[in-house]
# Entry
Amino acid sequence: MNNFSLNNNTLRIHASNRPISLSNRMKRGLIIALGMSTALPVWAVEIDDSTTAPVQTSTANAGQADDVTVTEDGDIDLTGLSGTTAITINSDNTVTQEGEILAEDTDDVVGIAIRTDTVTRLTHAGSIEFVEDYDREDEDDDDDLDGPLAIGSNRIGILVDGGGTVTGDIILDHGSTLVIEGNDSAGVLIGSALAGDYTQQGSMTVVGDNARGLAFADDVDGDVLISGAITVQGANASALEIEGDISGNLTIESSISSTGFTSTTATNYIAPIYIDDDTEAVEDRRDADDLDDNTNSVRITGSLGQGLLINGAVDDFISEEDEDDETKDTIDDFDDNRSTGRIYSYGSAPALDIQADAGENLVFSGVVETVRDTTDADDDEDVDEVLATFSYDHGLINRGTIYSSGLNIGFDATALSIAGSNDGTGTVTMDGGILNSGSIQATAYEASSVAVLLGDGTSIGTFENSGTIGSTTYTLTDDMAKALVISSRSTLESILNSGSITASSNGYGGAATAITDESDTLRSITNTGAISALLISDGREDAETGSSVAIDLSAQTGGATILQYQETPTEDVNEDDEIDEDDVTEPIIYGDILFGSGDDTLQILDGGLVGDIFFGDGDATFQLSDAEFLGDTYFAGNTLSLLVENSEIEGDFDFGSATGTLDLLSSTLLTGNLTSDSYGLDATISESEIILLEDTALQLASLSVTGGSTLEFEIDPQNLRTTPFISVSGNAALGSDTLIRPTLTSFIDGDFAVTLIEAGSLTYDEEATELSTENVPWIYNVILQTKSSTTDDLSLGFRLKTADELKLDGNQSNALSAILNVATSDDDIGSAITQLSTEHDFLEAYNLLLPQRTDAATRYLESQSNAAFGALRSHLEFARTSSESGNGAWVQETYSHVSYDGSAEGPGYDGRGLGLALGYDWSLFGLDAVGLMGTMTDGKFEEKTGGENPVTMKSLGLGVYASEQMGRINLQAVGQIAKVDHSSYREIEFEDYVSEVSGTWDGLTTAASLVASTEFGSGAFRMTPSVGVDYFKLDQDGYSETASNGLNLWVSDASTDRVTADAGLGFAYVWRGGGDPSRTGPAYSSYTSANRDRPMVRAGLDIGYRSTLSSTPYEVDAGFVGYEDSFTLSATEAFEDAATVGLSLLAGSELLKIRFGLDGEFSTDATAITANAAVKLRF
# Structure
């Protein structure tokens, strides 16, 4: 048996003589239960059908006070009953509302009212709907709706009178709804103090001007749980207001949103990339009545005894161990019992606004979380059963979403705002600071955005972020995006970031700042995640007027420390069965860092840093280890310490007039301009590579280079410096294994020298120190030299190589002067040439500067002419051996390939292409055959210079030929002319310099051939000796090239020719079916129809020798367009005597024959091979 007693204000339960102390909340609950059990009857009054009669608890039971229950079947309809309240709690009784309270088009109505100083419990599990039969219409024919969102007014779902205290819980249970339409209306208004819990697990929607969702005007002695959605829409809309203190915890684990806009999806913003002449003006995209502003989504002006929790998952990553572990013994084990809280504001009102009233000191104590059995894991149908309670240090914890969007043009956006009173007398203190593991995001359009604003009069302590904090503005001007702002009279001592803090401007003119400290209280920033400030293209050109600052501490005088390192991995996040650095995010700071005038420290111990760093007037310490840094660094103070280890840096350093140490150690790579104004730094370089760009002017007290370090010096010969890169007032010591490596950025046509290091004394081992020429242009010779006078100098001397030293051939040497003139006059070309540091790269690029300079065109077109003449010769030979007279026609397709190996005096080449030859002949003028022939060729050749430089040729030709047998001698003569279209292409590419050069020009070929042959043999075997003389000439017009980026040439006309004589011997085997294989005489005089269809096969082998009797080589004058220099290019190859070989196979009848052949011409350094297929007809 339990005994209850109340002694000395301490409530205890006595059971079996064992006293149990109870919490204040349990004491209050027992008092309420005991008091109401003695005052109320056993049965409550039930409303289980429809009624229009309001009810009061004080008279509910025949004039007596009683509990009231509206069952699921019951409803109270207030339609037309303006000024009435459906249920009034005006006695110490409970109300359970499971049915419906409704009114349509009725003003001044209240669903449930609670009078002050009552002891009660309200459970709303049904619906309250105060709606109106009203729809907005398109009144001005602009294709959108017009008018107010609501026309009624003063409709309230649940109202607690102001003044006094209501004792008991208010519960909006699972599945309950509140739908209120009307101006100056509200969902739940609690005007008095509440000694009890407020729990909302149902949904609430309020629409109309000055709409209010849930509001607490006084203190709450208990917990407030928002687990159901609150949606408020209308001008000056407010979703949740808490004006008093809450002794317990405030938990938000549902969606809360407010907006004054008529739509949260439609916007009058259009990105610049989508704007054209047909785009509507801004004022025409949305009407003014669509763009009313809201007041707030969540506003808190009271203290929270157990903090503010915006709920959500504690740990998004579920490992295999987590899946296998069914025991709930850690905080994240209960994530399946947690719902996610989301606060949205569409308009300029903050999504979450915490502000002290004048004279008030708000305190958010550490969060206490109560976890309920929301999944009903034990199947007892009790989802409110408490599973666990957790206490935290932080006064505000966000695991969900805090989101603010201006949505339309001109509306600023603030996600989280915490501030003291406007007059400075009220303050806000967050015990244990703030923890964000969720998302805090603000977005504005042609306006400014702030994700987190810590205003004046706030004391936060530590801001810990493992989630995302983001601020974005879309701007055509200079609007600002700030992720975290610490105002001038706020206090925030440290930031711990393992998530992301990002500010971005879509539009290069905006100002993006991730962290801004105006308070001079922020002493520590630790980053293991990402801190970023970004300028993002919106399609317009970057005018470079914007700014991207990752961390702005410029207002500080007390100094700060920024530390970045990589977290130690603890879980196999990427599921590769290994727990290593790949399981954690590599930290990065993206954007500028601005320090103030205090003593500051920047330690980047891992990850990346992209942005400029500005150290102020105080002492500066900069440590970079195992990291990458892209940006410039400026020191304005008097003392600095720079330590870089195993890191890569690309950026300039301005050390100002500071004294201190500069240590570049352990595999560091630094590229940049290093400058200083005084001899105050002691520099040590060990096991590192330092690339000093051309504007370096570094003054040092001492210099030590050891450990096989490399010093690279970038030199601009066209703007040759007169001062050394490094000046040392004391000793400069270069270790014996130091590597000196020069790099040139421009070109001059001459010799020059540059001083690298000047020192009071130079310790330098001339024999052991290595000079690297890997970056020295091939066109220069370079030497490393020292001299001593009043100071010791280390310098480099450069001398331009001669044509012989460059290993140029005759044509290349002829062009050298013109090319050097271009390189000197054009900085881009000169700079590109300086990047050619090997003989191979230099000669390959050099060759591409020149046009064709070989006889490739002559050799290729001549091979095509020889192939056509060979086809004609084969045709006439078959005509002579045929037994049938008549006219003849033939057609042959040819593939030709020519190749020349080249020599020390000129490049080789390859040519290939297709040709088509055809002809028709008659017996005329007493000759065996007189005919016409036509040719067409399409081919190209490319000189073997290592680049892409093809020349293509297309030709159309017309010729005449004749054949006559004189005794045993067969004579054949042919002549032809052809028009040739040439086109050239050269892709000139030197590292970053590219120019595509092309040219077109006309040409004409003239060719003639005279051949005498005879035939011996009987039966199937034949032997045919022959001799012949050939003439070929190619005339090419002059032309000027065009280029995408310069280096185009003009080229003069050229004429080449060649006369050759050849002798050959042919062997053939001929088989005819069903007849005498012996020859019967010329085909034109012996016609018999008896043998016209007999099949025939002929196989042939031809061997010969061709000798060049005379030739005129290719030679042109050329020069670069726009320059006066010219030079001569001449082909250097000789057309040597060559052996010829041919194989053929013919099959068919006397009327139709098909022939396949393969012919080759072979000399010492050139070959010409032709494959052909021919069809021959007799009519």
Remarks:
- The first strand starts at residue 2 and ends at 7.
- The CA atoms of residues 37 and 667 lie 81 Å apart.
- The chain has a mean pLDDT of 89.
- Residues 856-881 form the longest helix (26 residues).
